[in-house]
Amino acid sequence: METAQKTERQHPVGGSEAEAIIEVRGLTKRYGGDTVVKGIDFDVKRGEIFGLLGPNGAGKTTTMEMIEGLRRPDDGYARVAGYDTRSQLAKVKEVIGVQLQATSLFDLLTVREITRMYASFYNTPTVPIEPLLESMILGDKLNGRVKHLSGGQKQRLAIALAIVHSPQVVFLDEPTTGLDPQARRTLWDIVLRLRDEGKTIVLSTHYMDEARILADRICLMDQGKIVALDTPANLISSLASESAIEFRLPAGDHAAGADHPSAERLAERLETIDGVRRIEFRKESWVLYTDALQRSLTGLIAFAEQEGLALTDLQTRTATLEDVFIQMTGRSLREE
Amino acid sequence: MKPYIQLTLAQLRLFGRNRQVLFWTLFFPVVFIFMLGTFMGNGSGGAVEGYWIDEDGSERSAQVLAALEEQKAVLKLEQAKDREAALEELRHGTKQVLIIIPAGFGDTVEAAVTGQHSGVSDSPAGSLTVYYDQTQASKSMSALNAAAQAADEVSKAVVEYSPVVAVEPVGVQSLNLTFLDFIVPGIVAMMIMSNNLNGVAGQIASWRERGILRRMQSTPLRPSTFIAAQITARLLMNGSQALIVLLLGIFVFGAQMNGSWLLLLGFVLLGTLAFMAIGFIIAGLARTPESAGPIAGFVSFPLLFLGGIFFPVSDMPAFMQPIVKAIPITHLSTGLRQVMNVGAGIGEVWVEALVLGGWLAAAFIAASLVFKWE
């Protein structure tokens, strides 16, 4: 079973035959007059890493907390391993493990003490504490106090506490926010290992690289709604343009912005370049999406020569989830 | 049972490892007892110190001085070397009284004696000048009384008067209580109130804010287990802190302990539980940890002054008495004080115990209604 999953890492969830361990239907949450989650539906399949990707305020945390039973949905329902999160919450709590976005732990307890305490909360058998903490690379911190841990170590401890009762589903809410690159990579390895051990992981993030590297499927959320749900590869290929060409123009007529009349004319003419599918102007940069990078690039340079335009900061790259998000919502992931 | 033990242990560890809080919660009441017990209640028992000046030097003035000497239990007088210097000391408060027998005192008295015999005058002729410090009201009153009594004695001797009615004083208070005896139970009551009320309110609100309670809520842990562990740990911790201060007060500072230790311990536990429950209510009502502190302060500050901690509740104005009698701190401080000072048994302090128990029950019901994980 484990080896099968490992070999299938790129496409671990082979279509519809995989069993849904989480079922979400019409899930809705309102705060006052604001509807922050607007009737969403999705399934999470057993053994996958399910990524909730979206900007801050998209409703990721609220969605997760409704599935965890920490918030009551105003409408719709969520089921985990067949248990309803409202009527069978006690059952749900036994099969899930939770790392909350803003959890702080007791600073004055040691790593071992706090793990033993969390283990005591469960009626089901728990895993041996020392091997668990060693697997989270905290073996030499067993008797160290929580307050002396680094940010990455604290997050790994939070994950250890979430899996101390060997739950079927693990919820990780923005586990790498605020960590340095090294600590993020260590955490990614741990998350992938958990999946390989057979756990289902629901992970929220606003980092597209994290979602692309970790998630088997990504649920792209914006303003309380799902804008897309697919594997990272399928999402990117849905752009129908594999590459993007970015450049700037020096301050002048053409650089003034997309709403400038001459810029509008410029955009119309750029669109005629061979292979270009779509044009965006954002953050003072022009972005041409193309499915024929080399031809479009040659075309662009010829166009610039002919018009006497001096291109700066010219770069090409493959299209990313960020581009998908922009296409779907018209906004950048990083915009607050 | 396992989560209850683990949570209790965790809370005790948090207490034990927070050295700073541990130090101040013990240090503060001890310093209070030391300051109030030593500086306000020192053993001079209300004696007034002062000077006398005899400007007359007659036989009559010597008679007055002898009569003043008889009052030395309350009036400790020395001869002043210089009038101005003596007045200066009076202004600085190091001495409280200056009695001057003016020149010509003896002659006036002699003249008056003659006058009285002939029945001409009925107003006293000789007079003593007494300088006193109005800012020290009670000491001044004893000084003036003592001086008046001395003057009275001389008058009686002069006119060869023998009294027909006398007062025979019999002390009913067999215990000689000092201010220290009063303040130790008060400080312990204050400590129990603030440690539990402010401690619970602040900590629970801060745990809620930091998401610690939410994280626990996502596990099968029951709120009742959580609260039971909190109560156990705090009962052990705050109860023993109160006991340490009591022991220090009794055995180091010398406060009297005339009653049953068991009953005293009972009041400590009852007070701890009652104020803990009130703390849980505040933690439930406060929206942020920042507001929990001020709310707890808002509740405990008036109690500090109304509840008989620093002054007897009988000193409160009449219109305040219903409030004073209703609040829990009054009954805790009174209970502790009655047991320690007077050696009261349960038969005499059952009302205090009952009211505290009532507060405890009501507060726990209210706390369980308003408690929330998030």
UniProtKB/TrEMBL annotation, chain A:
<keyword id="KW-1278">Translocase</keyword>
<dbReference type="InterPro" id="IPR050763">
    <property type="entry name" value="ABC_transporter_ATP-binding"/>
</dbReference>
<dbReference type="InterPro" id="IPR003593">
    <property type="entry name" value="AAA+_ATPase"/>
</dbReference>
<keyword id="KW-0067">ATP-binding</keyword>
<keyword id="KW-0472">Membrane</keyword>
<keyword id="KW-1003">Cell membrane</keyword>
<dbReference type="InterPro" id="IPR017871">
    <property type="entry name" value="ABC_transporter-like_CS"/>
</dbReference>
<keyword id="KW-0813">Transport</keyword>
<keyword id="KW-0547">Nucleotide-binding</keyword>
<dbReference type="GO" id="GO:0005886">
    <property type="term" value="C:plasma membrane"/>
</dbReference>
<feature type="domain" description="ABC transporter">
    <location>
        <begin position="22"/>
        <end position="248"/>
    </location>
</feature>
<protein>
    <submittedName>
        <fullName>ABC transporter ATP-binding protein</fullName>
    </submittedName>
</protein>
<dbReference type="InterPro" id="IPR003439">
    <property type="entry name" value="ABC_transporter-like_ATP-bd"/>
</dbReference>
<dbReference type="Pfam" id="PF00005">
    <property type="entry name" value="ABC_tran"/>
</dbReference>
<dbReference type="InterPro" id="IPR027417">
    <property type="entry name" value="P-loop_NTPase"/>
</dbReference>
<dbReference type="GO" id="GO:0016887">
    <property type="term" value="F:ATP hydrolysis activity"/>
</dbReference>
<dbReference type="GO" id="GO:0005524">
    <property type="term" value="F:ATP binding"/>
</dbReference>
TrEMBL record, chain B:
<dbReference type="GO" id="GO:0016020">
    <property type="term" value="C:membrane"/>
</dbReference>
<dbReference type="InterPro" id="IPR047817">
    <property type="entry name" value="ABC2_TM_bact-type"/>
</dbReference>
<keyword id="KW-0472">Membrane</keyword>
<keyword id="KW-1133">Transmembrane helix</keyword>
<feature type="transmembrane region" description="Helical">
    <location>
        <begin position="349"/>
        <end position="371"/>
    </location>
</feature>
<dbReference type="Pfam" id="PF12698">
    <property type="entry name" value="ABC2_membrane_3"/>
</dbReference>
<keyword id="KW-0812">Transmembrane</keyword>
<feature type="domain" description="ABC transmembrane type-2">
    <location>
        <begin position="148"/>
        <end position="374"/>
    </location>
</feature>
<dbReference type="InterPro" id="IPR013525">
    <property type="entry name" value="ABC2_TM"/>
</dbReference>
<feature type="transmembrane region" description="Helical">
    <location>
        <begin position="295"/>
        <end position="313"/>
    </location>
</feature>
<feature type="transmembrane region" description="Helical">
    <location>
        <begin position="21"/>
        <end position="41"/>
    </location>
</feature>
<feature type="transmembrane region" description="Helical">
    <location>
        <begin position="182"/>
        <end position="205"/>
    </location>
</feature>
<dbReference type="InterPro" id="IPR052902">
    <property type="entry name" value="ABC-2_transporter"/>
</dbReference>
<dbReference type="GO" id="GO:0140359">
    <property type="term" value="F:ABC-type transporter activity"/>
</dbReference>
<feature type="transmembrane region" description="Helical">
    <location>
        <begin position="261"/>
        <end position="283"/>
    </location>
</feature>
<protein>
    <submittedName>
        <fullName>ABC transporter permease</fullName>
    </submittedName>
</protein>
<feature type="transmembrane region" description="Helical">
    <location>
        <begin position="226"/>
        <end position="255"/>
    </location>
</feature>
